[in-house]
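Entry for NDP complex. Fields follow.
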Amino acid sequence: MKFNAKSFIEYVKQRNNNESEFIQAVEEVAVSLEDFLNANQIYLENRILERLVEPERTIIFRVPWVDDNGEIKVNRGYRIQFNSAIGPYKGGLRFHPTVNLSVLKFLGFEQVFKNSLTGLPLGGGKGGSDFDPHSKSDSEVMRFSQSFMSELYRYIGPNIDVPAGDIGVGAREIGYLFGQYKKLTKDFSGVLTGKGLPWGGSNIRTEATGYGLVYFVEEMLRAKNDSINGKKVIISGSGNVAQYAAEKVIQLGAKVLTMSDSAGTIYDKDGITQEKLEHLKQIKNVKRGRIKDYANKYNVEYLDSENPWSIKADIALPCATQNEINKEDAMALVKNEIVLVGEGANMPSTSEAIDIFKENKILFSPGKASNAGGVAVSGLEMSQNSARVQWSREEVDQNLKKIMIEIHGKILEYGNRGESIDYVAGANIAGFKRVADSMIAQGLV
Ligand code: NDP
Ligand code: 2IT
């Protein structure tokens, strides 16, 4: 049998019309796997890739709720249970107006490979809603979250499917979702991760994605006999991932020049200090305001409606959303002699941008590798819940670091090209192999 990535993508396009983000994610994987599949016929004979691009189950449901004015609102809820070959479905929930089937399918598909790379027993899933938590009151968010869970609870469970946070879903939302699940099922269990520390959460889960990203970047630099110390770093986003990526960068002696939100970018030439970062956390997490307030308070440059990619630096860490680095942005980064691009968000670089990084020999790591620290600590939260224990910050942090270093090692197995490392191919092949072997072992289900 012969696998041809191009014709496979045509087949996926035909079956998933108009799902551009999903097709983009599949295309990247199919291209990476071409040689590997042709050299390992067993995966072709078992039609593993055809099976992998078909979610095991897709649940779509109505989410009605009442706003503070007593008006009825209706949103759409989703949970995509993508693949359970190596563990219960696991992955975040996203609440954002841009959420649709294509976005959640790309996220669920990537999650399967990411979770496999962690080495933990985690299948892949993703869900969410087109609900926009911006400018909603706490009680509106609570009523929406309760309505969402009133349907979702039927399909999840600590050994079935364990959702967590993603864009628009943080500690507040996880709390309301957990409360409603418990009320409906009478069951206090580890059905969600990202829980509060007093009620079953794990130390370091809040920090895990951002810290893990920087641990991974350190490994990439170490492989080049370099280090992060003294580097200039541009970060996009100012949510969970961006905040803790910035924190770890600062701790390791590098300078964070930018952060952003959906309205614009702040450019702090002196570098964001831990103290200023604490203020930014207040703006974004407590006041739920705009990053522009940071520029006003510290009198730094504010780039209205712009992203950070035009600012000169050594390292770029996109930590906001998908396709936030396009071809022009990638060219600007290359022109400014960027050394490394480490994805904290899921699929923040378009495929044209990735091609430009490759052509210019930029060290580039895909989100499914470098942002795996979040779901990895979610996996550790599940273990702690099962054992009814809570590990210390130090213990979880050490575990996280170890997992990120191991992911780097697994990628080297398949992505080492002598003088360079193909992190995209390495992550896709290593992530695929574990899931594919498990699928074959479990028969045609
Ligand atoms: P948050 O909701 O905490 O923060 C998202 C940030 O990105 C905010 O600053 C937001 O701006 C900005 N943003 C969101 N959508 C857009 C958009 N369309 N255009 C421009 N800016 C945007 O989410 P997280 O930090 O949790 O997630 C960020 C990324 O990291 C996502 O890609 C997510 O899938 C990924 N990720 C998250 C993990 C986690 O554990 N949370 C784990 C692995 C990956 P504003 O404040 O204006 O909305
Ligand atoms: O994209 C991701 O890996 C997440 N949003 C975290 C998933 C999780 O289950 O912790």
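NOTE: Residues 393-415 form the longest helix (23 residues).
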